[in-house]
## 1
Amino acid sequence: MANVWNYLANEGDYPDLDADSACKHLSAAIQCRTITYLDSSLMEWKEFDLLHMLMREAYPHVFSHAEVKEIDHSLLIRIPGSDPSLRPIMLMGHQDVVPVVAGSEKNWTHPPFSGYIDDTYIWGRGAIDMKDQTIGILEAAEYILAHEQKLERSLILSFGQDEEGIQSGASRIADLLAHCNTKLEFLIDEGDYRITDGSLYGANGEPLRMVHLAEKGYCDLQLVSHSAGGHSSNPFHGTSLAILSEAIHRITQDHHEPKLIPLVRLSFETIADCINAEPLHTFVSNIDAHSAEIAQLCAKDANLFPLVVTTTAPTMIEGSSAQPNVMPQNMRAVINFRILPGETCAGILAHVQDLLKSLPVEVQILPNSANNPSQISRYDSYGVRCLQAVSSRYFVNPKTKKGLRVVPALATGASDARMYEKICDSCLRYSAFVVDDEEDEHGVHGINERVTRRAYLQGIRFMIRLIQSSCMHVQK
Ligand SMILES: [Zn+2]
C-alpha cells in the first residue's frame, strides 16, 4: 500500500493542535539514545533520564495532574478521572529502540539519532518503533488537559524500558497494577502499523486495519550433540555435526496439519462479504464446512502461513571444527518456535524430544526464552467498539469514503500487551501511527527509519478522540 496519507481523513480535527511543536518533541525524543541491548549492563540509563526530563518539560499538564511512578526506568502515569467506579483504560508505548547495526550509519540519509525533520518526514531510530506512539500519546493527553477537559474515567499511560529486549519493564508495571487491584477496561499497545492490503486475504480492492487480539507464543529450544572430536579419518558413529544436522532435518520436516484457529477464523468471517477472490470466496460462504481448505490455502501463502501453523526456524548453530580434517566436539543449535494459541511450550518440548529420541541429542528450553501464546481478548467488547469508531473516522477508503474495516487478527510477534492479561480481558494491539509497506520493510529495525509528519499527527488526533470518547461523557 503506497502513500499512506491517501487513507487519512478528518485531518482538520483539533485545528489548534500545535503540529510543529509535536514534531519537535518527537525529534527530541529520537535524539535520546534509549537503545536496548540484550546484555542489560550495556544499557545507557542516562539517555532514559534525558527522555524523562524532556517529557516533563514538554507535557507540564500531564505531569502535574498525574500520579507518576518510575519503576526502574519504566514509566507508569495515572491521570485520575472523577468517577472511580469506571475501570481505567491504558495506552501503551515503549521508550527503548533497537540498536543501529554497526557500520550501517553511513547508509542513513540523516544520522540515525538526529531526529531530523523535513517538510514530509521525521527521521531516526524509533520514528516508527515506536517513539511516535509513545510521544503521540503524551501529546494527546497534554492537549486534553491543557484544554481543561475533565476525565471521568482514569487514564493510565505505560511506557516500558525494554520491550525490544527482555520486557522486564512491562512485567513489573503489570505486577504493580495487579498488586493495587487495578482492573482495566481495555488497553491499546503496539500493533500493525500498516494499512493492510485486503488482497492478502482474498479481498481485492479492500484496504483494512488490523487489531490483534492475541499473540503467538515463543520458545527457543537448544539441541546439543556431544562428541570428543578426533581425526576425521574414522567418523564411525558420525560426527556431532552429522547428528545435529539429522536432528534439525527431522524437526523441520516434521509435518503439522495447518489449523484455522478460532481467532483467524474470525478474521475471515469479519471480511467474508468483501472476499472476492476464488476459491476463498466460495470457502468463506460456509467457513465451518471449509475450514480445513482455508487453512491449507493459508499455509501455501508466505504472508498467511504463520497464522495457521506453529512455525519452526533453526536460527543458530555453533561449535563446528576449525579444520577440515578434525571432527567437531560438542555442538549446539537453537530452533525458534512461534506457537499457535491452543499449543504450549511444554507440548513443543515433549514433541521434539519424542521426535529425536533415537538420536544422542539433548533438548532443552533456553532460560527466559519461552512464553505460551497469550489469551485471546474479547472481540465483543467496549474497547473494540471504541477503537472501531475512532479508527473509521481517521482511516477511510478514498474510493468508497467509508471507514476502513477493523479486522480482529492474530499477531505473529510478541508485544508487551500479554503481560497485562491478568488485569485486562481486552488487550488490543493496534497502531494509529501508520506507515507505508515500503517504510515498514526497510525502516522498522532497519536503515532510514522515518515517519511522515501527517501520519504522526493523525495518530495524535486518533489518541485525543479515543481518550475523549472513552474517558469523557461516559455512558454507563
Ligand atoms: Zn516496538
## 2
Amino acid sequence: MADNCNQHSVEKTDTSNDIDIARIVIVGAGLSGLTCARNLTRLLKKRPHQITIVEARDRIGGRTFSIPELNLDLGASWIFPDHTAVRALANELGINKLEQYEGGMSLVDTMNGTSRPTSMGNIHGGAKRLKGGTGSLCASILNELTNRNEATVNIQLNSPVTSINYNDDKSITVKLHDHHSIMADYVVLALPPKLLISTVQLTPMLPSSLIEQLKKCVTWMASTCKAVLVYERAWWREKKLSGFAVSRQLKAQEWHDASSATCNALFVFCLANTTRQQVIDATVKIFGSDAENPTAVYITDWSNEAFTSSSVNDGRGGHPHVTDVCRQAYWNGRLWLSSSEVSDTDSGFLEGAVTRGIQVADQLAELMFKEKTKSQNGIDV
Ligand SMILES: Cc1cc2nc3c(=O)[nH]c(=O)nc-3n(C[C@H](O)[C@H](O)[C@H](O)COP(=O)(O)OP(=O)(O)OC[C@H]3O[C@@H](n4cnc5c(N)ncnc54)[C@H](O)[C@@H]3O)c2cc1C
C-alpha cells in the first residue's frame, strides 16, 4: 500500500542546548516543510544548526501520497507547465515525468442515466505526472536530507504538535501529543493554516488580523475523496476513449487515465464519504460493464484525514487567498508560516508549497545571519 518512506524515522532526540547552535523546528513533513528544510540546510552551511521536522502522521508527504511502484497518486498528481518551481525541483531530484494520456473521446453523463462521447482537446493543459508519483518529491528530499547532509536534520513521525509557546527568554517550546517537548529558537509551521488554527494552541496569541485570515483560508482539496481503479487491460484505450469522464449527478465525479508502464488504471475524484462500491458502480454507469471488475481499488478520503482536513467543508471554496499578513514572521522573527495555502503564488498547488518553502528558508536564513552578527557584536537580539 501507499508508503512514503516512513522507515527513515529516527529516534526522538533532545535538540542541543548549545547556545550557538540554532535550533529550528519544522512542523509538518509535507512538500512545503521538506522543501524549506532542504533549502535551509543549503543556506546555513556556515551557520551551526539543528533542524527537527515533526510530523503527525506515520509517513511523510502530506497531501502527496503515492503508490510508487505503480506510479499512482491518491493525493496530488499533476505538475502544470507554468509551475516552474516544482518542475525545477523534480529536475534537481532527478525524477522523470510521465505523460498524461488523453487521446480519444471523453464521456459526459446525461440526465437520462447514460453517457455521451464528446471530443475534448487539451484536457489537462500539458500537465505531467511523476515517475513514482508526486510522493517521490518528498521521498527524494528526505533521502537527501538524511543521507547526504551531515546529520543536521532529524525527522520524528507519529508526533502531532499540540501547542507552541514563545517563552520570556525568547526560546520556543513545541509540545507533542505525548507531552514530550522540543526546545527551539525558530519554528516553521508547515501545515494547512485552517488546521493549524483549529488544532494547535499558540501562546501568546497571534494578532487577530492574522487569525481571521487563517480561519478563512480553505485547504485545497481537503474535502475530496480520491480513488484509483486498477484493471488488467486499459479497455477504455482499446475503445478509443481517453479515460476522461465527467458526472455531476453521481458521487464519483471526474475520471482520468492513470496508467503507466506498471499498471492500467483510472483515477476518480469523488465527493467526500464515497465508498469503494459507489466508485465502482459509478464507473460502470459511465463506462459500461468493462469497468465491473477492477483488480485493485485504492481510496483516500481526504475529508476524513485528521491531519489535512479540519471539517468536511474544509476544501470547498476554490483556491485560498491570503494577504502578506500571513507571510510575515511573528514572535520577533521566531515563528514562520510555510504551507502551500499561504504562498503568494499558486496557493493550494504543489507549486505554492515549493515556492513558500523556498521563500521561508531564504528569509529565515537571512534573519539568522543578521542575528548572529548582532550577537557577535554584543547587541541583544
Ligand atoms: C486529492 C488531491 C489532489 C491534488 N491534486 C493536485 C495536483 O494535481 N497538482 C497540484 O499542484 N496540487 C494538487 N493537490 C494539492 C497539493 O497536494 C498540495 O498543494 C501540497 O501537497 C501541499 O503541501 P503542504 O506541505 O503545503 O501541505 P501538506 O501536504 O498538507 O503537509 C502538511 C503536513 O503537516 C502535517 N501535520 C498536520 N498537522 C500536524 C500537527 N499538528 N503536527 C505535526 N504535523 C502535522 C501533515 O500530516 C502533513 O504531512 C492535490 C491535493 C489533494 C488532496
